[in-house]
Amino acid sequence: MERETNGTILWLTGWSMPDAVFDRLRLLLPDFRHISVDYSAADSPEEMLCLTETSVRDMLCIEGIACRERVSHGPLLISGWSLGGLLALRLAAKGYADGLVLFGATARFTRSKEEFDRGLADAYVRQMIKGILKDQHAVEANFRKIMFTEQEWETGLAERLPHTGSWTTQSLLAGLQILRSEECLSQLPNIDCPVLLIHGTEDRICPYGAGLELSTQIPQAKLITLTGCGHAPFLGKEVHIADEWRRWWHDHWKK
């Protein structure tokens, strides 16, 4: 008997980014059920973390309530981009995921000077926090500038991003505080589900070294390297990624 779907995908977007950024990719994955967590109005880091975990717990019926819905919709995959990838790793480390798909992700966003091939300086994030309190729009616009390579800008890739302004000031600050403090490095060996990593070699926000780090420390990780791509490796490549995603998941879920 065939499963009704290949599973449920819980989507966690990146800092300051509307969930709509995933719309085209979701359309190409009609064989999955899609759910998103909206933390664009979270008032604090604690609320943002609580929203993501509560959403998963509700889906999985953690409190001992029979969950027929989950059985009918198959396994749970969590897909995260950037900040969303860090949140996804946190959930997987707690055993909530049957699989992860991560875009431009890292297990620790801020790094020491010796690890700048894997992250940014904490001072950079602190500067963003100060900037948001003065001119939120300018900080978001500057962040988008460094998301793309020169070639990606010239080809108009950045124009595919939804408009800025969907996050509240407090949620932007909360997300940055999580990026400053949250780390999953120590938990990576304990993630026992299959993980698909998609990372651009020219990512200046979560450098490619962070993707390599994840691929070597997570037991069941597969890394897809996108040469010349910046921090939005799925944008404009949705058809290719949907095909890779489905192939990867079929190989694991059919075992």
UniProtKB/TrEMBL annotation:
Serine aminopeptidase S33 domain span: 54-234
Keywords recorded for this protein, A-Z: Hydrolase
SUPFAM superfamilies, A to Z: alpha/beta-Hydrolases
Keyword Ribonucleoprotein: no
Hydrolase found in the keyword field: yes
GO molecular function: hydrolase activity
Gene3D superfamilies, per database record: alpha/beta hydrolase
Name of the molecule in the record: Alpha/beta fold hydrolase
Native source species: Paenibacillus taichungensis
